[in-house]
Batch of 2 targets.
Target 1
Amino acid sequence: MSQLGEVEEATMSSPEDGQDECCKRFNIDSKECNICNMDQRDLRAFEGLATSLHFARASKELGMSPSALTRRIQGIEEELGTMLLLRDRRQLGLTQAGRRFLQYCRAEQALFDELKADLKHEEETPSGELKIACTVTACHSILPRLLADFRQKYPRVTIQLITQDAARSLEQLEESEVDLAVIPSDGAIEEIAERRLGFTEFSLIAPTFPAFDTAESLKKLPFIAPAGGLERIRLDEWLAQMGIEAAIGAEVRGNEGIIALVSLGGGVALVPELVLNSSPLRSKVRILGAAQLPPGYAISLCALKRSLKRRLVELFWNSAGSFQEPQPSLSPNLKIPARVEPEHQ
């Protein structure tokens, strides 16, 4: 049987190791395969002519002159080494080889169209992994809406959440260990882009133990301080501004841990109201009144500016734009109640 005679059966085989079906069938190099050396225009030209069996009509539909179509068909026949068309003055027909080759053309065109559709779908529904660092509180209060919206738009993208303190999240972002971070921000780092998602004020908290009911007893308590980051900067600046020479009783990574130590009588602390209001230990600490507290801060989605050129990062960044908070007011899920004044003893 000739090579062309095997075309129909060859197209039924499954491709392996990158070989086309016809090359695999005949165990030949694709460079030596006449069928593989044809491009999509050859296959389309023959399929168009074989369907209409009219040179003038087919050439018009293909956007080429009848003479150019004739030369292309002749070239295909020369490569295959067989006649594909029956020609006479009155009509045009297909030989047996022509009918087999038409089946091959249609099968190849269907595969090509399927490939284009798959590639378009892949472009419209990207896949991959995004690493996002955030605090536990941000994970509970800010990210759910963002993640739900992004997941609905891009279901094939996997999100890896890394929960930790804000300072460590910033370090990982700067070292490109994560793609994005939801952290306190003040626009101080030039290389980092920020998309504001919320805002929180500070609360000064103390234990609820009776032994610490008086102002004098509270002065004896050390401060429980953040280990680093924007919150530590605000605390240090506030203590200096107020002229308070406070002992630092502990440095803790994470506001949840700070609240826990305060609830156990370990000291007093400045904590974000957002964290305090969502803490299960909220009833175990009390808020102290103060004439002046350090300014609050924005909670932002942050990314290295250069990483915004990466497709998945850009998609998440743009998706979060609908949740951006342009004004220095609280977002709906970051409402802060009125400050609770200490009880008079």
Note: Residues 96-124 form the longest helix (29 residues).
Target 2
Amino acid sequence: MAIWEGYSHSGTTTGDHEKSVLGIPFTWGTEGIVTVKETIEFRIPIENARKHLPAGLGVDLGGVLRVTLASEDPLIARIKSLEHHYHAKGKTFVHGWMIRRRYSRDELDQAKLLHVWPQKSFEPAGEECGTAYDESEACDYVISRIPEWEISGYRIPESIDFCGVGAVQVTSLYLDGRRIPRNVDFTRTIAGEIVVSSRVVQVFQELGLTGAEFDPVRLVDRNHEPSQDHYQLNVVGTPVELDSVTRAGSHPFDEDAYGRCPRSHLVGLNLLSEVTVKAAKIPKNDILITRQMVGVRRGLLRPRPLLLFSPCGWRAVKKAKLKGLTVEVAHLS
């Protein structure tokens, strides 16, 4: 059995004694806490798993098996092979996936740069609430196009994925204040518009953290009044350059980097690896974004840059106990 729901969380202290639990390697720390660096969780239909994977593997969620493996587990190569085999027949073996990385306290404290992103997303997006964008300079490179089709008498409109980088927000961010998640300080719309609490603004201003501007969110449920509690985060300054070792694509087995724009705007649909940026071109700000983005322009969805904190910025977030961010170590090349 190669699944283990771990006890590993950022902030644990790892030791030097390597062990394994249910096939997943880990280090047992001086505080008695288990740390796994990277795992991939797969969601696989039961009938697919029964045909091709070891008996007793994973957790049955009701027709779908949740299988969590360390990234170096040899079974992942088997799943990759099966996915390619099914794909060749117009099917999919894996119906969902999620990559998780966890770090020790020392790893986070010693990192020279950190990649962060709000955990919670919500809708409606700004565009649905009246936020306007100027698309005149947006990249029009088409990534994929699905023609209009019909199923059971219903016509499904044409779907186009294109780059879209270069669109400029030209109005305030208009949102429905009733839909903004509570009890977190960082959140985002499904279009990637980042919203922060007034507490974040206060911390940045009191500590003199650089690289951010904050604009009040205007609430459509309150006659477009500016919110006193929520602001849009805008990162200012020169964006940093991603190193080519940073992987992105549609899924962990994507070798073609679906979503990549040949004009160097997009690196792929989803971020698949840790972030590596070019050290020679990093401004001395506490919050930064990358020039290259991930995602695609599809309906309301928009590509987004990757968000980075300096060690000083991350320490400020931790000390103030600001909530809502995932964090990973970013690397310099």
Note: The first helix runs from residue 46 to 52.
